[in-house]
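ok here's Transposase:
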Amino acid sequence: MVHLEHFSEHPLDYINEFHTTERVRIDSCPHCFTRRRLHLHGIYHRHVIWHEDVFSIPVQRHYCIHCGKTVSILPSFCHSGFQLALPFLLELLWAFFNMIPSPNTLAHQHRHFISRRFLLCMNRLIEYFRICEDPLIVFPDFWHEKAIKLLEMVYSVGKPHIFAKRYYDHFKKGFMAL
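and the structure:
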């Protein structure tokens, strides 16, 4: 399971701060709901693609002695299940749906996959905004216009990591997870 925390806005800042800041502790297990603090269980490295750069960031793991499951603490600029950083992912989606050509070769490789995944998850995004913002929100009929409106609503929440954290806390999964 993944737990999102806001540390910094860029992978380089996160890497520099990782070894100097105090570790985040989890006071109850999200699997078995025991009220005992989880044990630090080491770290693993995960790749994050930020535009043309690829970073290997350390990620904390915690272990529950009652149920034997682990919880990883991801920085909020990461999206669980994707190597693309959240701001970069949203930029690619915005460029795709607004038909802006991308000179980035990495972006070109991911455009089809992420746009299709976003379209598959649009109904859950609509549900989220109707529950958390306004139940009477009207969305356009065409998928293309609907996707653009949803991306505008994501950006209107504030920074992308704020939206991602709120969405994850509500549904317990990332906004592009199937």
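+1. The first strand starts at residue 2 and ends at 5.
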